[in-house]
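We both want to read discrete structure tokens more fluently, so let's practise on a single case. Would you supply a protein for us yourself, any chain you care to pick? Would you write everything just below, so we can both look at the same thing?
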Amino acid sequence: MVAKCAYETPEMKALLGETLRPGGTLLTDKGVAFCQWKETDRLLDLGCGRGATVDYLKRVYNIRAVGLDPSQKLLAIAKKNNPNGLFYQGRGEQIPFENDSFEGALSECTLSLMTNREAALKELHRVLKKGGHLFITDVYARNPDALKGLISGDFDSCMRGLYALNQLENQILETGFMIERMEDHSHFLKTLLVKTVFEYGSMNVFWKKAAGGCAAGFQDQLRACKPGYYLMVARKVK
């Protein structure tokens, strides 16, 4: 049975817009500024979804980005919205590009969707040139002791893939990156929570609409994990 992808649902788009992530492009701007990406750089947008970031980078910064996503449905929308953009189907655990292909990579609320986060980080390291920056925004568990409860629900969502932040930091360093910046932006999740409750009456109702019956009890599990949201910039050093 194929897991339902919450990001393909109209409910998720209505809440998160074209970017399909909390905060929209506000943190993307911070990433471009800190990484000092320029027009001659080639970037990889891992989990490009509907192509919003690829379009934004080209339109605002004139920076080329290649989009990669496993969803045929979202890629079709990305290609329709960005007829001149480059989009490919694939997953972060097996990126279909040569070594040292990019000056930078973005993983905006997508590491939590990987079935094997360690493999995805190794692939990102492989396709980045030495000195290239990896820009990450994602959800994490502020109470990682409760993560063992996040086992039910046959659907794909970043909230299904919450992880401990210190575990990710160790994986980043072990892969050959140096962490240059770390910021907490959990306020974006709080804003999203308020919006969701206003629109649907409760988070339980939202998850039922976005993921169906397989999300039963999911909000209670999620609440115990105390989700947060962070920004990280890492540089390939070896």
Q: What stands out?
A: The two ends are 40 Å apart (CA to CA). The CA atoms of residues 179 and 234 lie 4 Å apart. DSSP finds nine helices and nine strands in the chain.
